[in-house]
Known about the structure:
The protein is of the alpha+beta class. The chain has three domains: 4-64 and 177-232 and 323-387, FAD/NAD(P)-binding domain (3-Layer(bba) Sandwich), CATH 3.50.50; 116-172 and 234-320, D-Amino Acid Oxidase, Chain A, domain 2, CATH 3.30.9; 391-453, no CATH class. The protein is 28% helix and 28% strand. It has ten helices and 21 strands. The strands form four sheets. Strands 1, 2, 7, 8, 9, 10, 16 and 17 form an eight-stranded mixed β-sheet that branches. Strands 3, 4, 5, 6 and 12 form a five-stranded mixed β-sheet that branches. The chain has a four-stranded antiparallel β-sheet with strand order 13-14-11-15. α2 (32-43) runs parallel beside α8. It binds flavin-adenine dinucleotide. Flavin-adenine dinucleotide (FAD) binds at residues 28-34, 51-54, 58-61, 64-67, 194-195, 218-220, 223, 239, 241, 274, 315-317, 343, 345-349, 351, 454.
Amino acid sequence: xxxxxxxxxxxxxxxxxxxxxxxxxxxxxxxxxxxxxxxxxxxxxxxxxxxxxxxxxxxxxxxxxxxxxxxxxxxxxxxxxxxxxxxxxxxxxxxxxxxxxxxxxxxxxxxxxxxxxxxxxxxxxxxxxxxxxxxxxxxxxxxxxxxxxxxxxxxxxxxxxxxxxxxxxxxxxxxxxxxxxxxxxxxxxxxxxxxxxxxxxxxxxxxxxxxxxxxxxxxxxxxxxxxxxxxxxxxxxxxxxxxxxxxxxxxxxxxxxxxxxxxxxxxxxxxxxxxxxxxxxxxxxxxxxxxxxxxxxxxxxxxxxxxxxxxxxxxxxxxxxxxxxxxxxxxxxxxxxxxxxxxxxxxxxxxxxxxxxxxxxxxxxxxxxxxxxxxxxxxxxxxxxxxxxxxxxxxxxxxxxxxxxxxxxxxxxxxxxxxxxxxxxxxxxxxxxxxxxxxxxxxxxxxxxxxxxxxxxxxxx
Length: 461
Ligand SMILES: Cc1cc2nc3c(=O)[nH]c(=O)nc-3n(C[C@H](O)[C@H](O)[C@H](O)COP(=O)(O)OP(=O)(O)OC[C@H]3O[C@@H](n4cnc5c(N)ncnc54)[C@H](O)[C@@H]3O)c2cc1C
């Protein structure tokens, strides 16, 4: 199913790589993170090529809802306890800066991608949650975000009454593929060029090898298990979206803190409705009406009785155990490899942060001039994949280890064709999307076993 972005944004096709070559930087992956990183690297004067397994923007980026915001669910009040005040402040400022960076870039490049500043709200319909929201608003405001708690009566444009909400002012939204298409224009990109392995400075595709000083893994989920161990540090979560035609344009963007809540934003005459999320590969039996498209369609029946659904689509993202993206060196053992992953469904600002940090680091290393004072490196330590925050990660790590043991054990007793080629876990049937999904690490395959989502790199046997 095509997203609202995909249907109206043809992107010029690029040829696949035909010969061996050498370059300063290879960026693997042509999504939001990869294209932005390559763009800034090229702007700094480095020779960079992008290798994309499919088409530019054909990964999760084409299925996002493209809110550009530092409001990442209920985050800040919790984060203070989990990662401390200093790191939480840095996280807030890095994300607020990323919104400004988008605006600056869009203005400088004159990109007509319906970029718009507006408020972002996290809301509840339940009175007992108001206290939590008030606390979140106060905490976020303390970290320099223009945030305030608003009573539900202030919000009248949603189709149900709200008890309360946290408003982050001056956030933004845009058309992600129009933006990406523009940035891609000036870049050297090889499409339909899948990277199979990377060893040292050499990148291997199906038929070629590329020598590079630096390699950036912007593949959504890092596909090499070692080094880095990213498969042990995050899981994937799937969410669903509908676009309803002929709806009144909203003045804000909305996200719910309630279980089974809905996300809202407008794109012109379309209302984008999101929700029905679940861990990839879990709780997706036909009988369970609380997930996926079924959940969203039932909400539409109740809330927008005469609405026409124009588009329906879904996507998934990597959820790191400590709720902080992985941006920086892939591993201490490969100091010239970089990674951008774990965006926890907030990949617009995270991609901008990644692009700024990684491009600045690679530039400095290539010219051997180092400056810790650079704005883009001020918050680098928060996102470093080499951070060690066991207390923040412990709860989700234990759940994930349980899921992996369960998936691997089931895999051992399953037929070959039901075993995920990534690590051997048993894949589960998803009737909402007619796909085989891995509950451990989130790889997905079509009914016939063709690969749809990584970290797996090959089809089911
Ligand atoms: C339903 C949903 C709604 C969302 N809404 C928002 C939102 O409103 N705001 C927000 O900030 N974030 C949102 N996100 C998150 C955001 O969409 C993602 O985090 C972001 O798009 C990820 O970009 P990416 O470049 O990392 O990955 P991708 O866009 O997936 O790009 C990775 C690319 O790498 C390529 N690739 C993979 N393996 C290889 C290989 N071996 N060789 C070559 N190429 C390879 C893939 O083909 C793909 O094109 C949402 C996520 C979901 C699931």
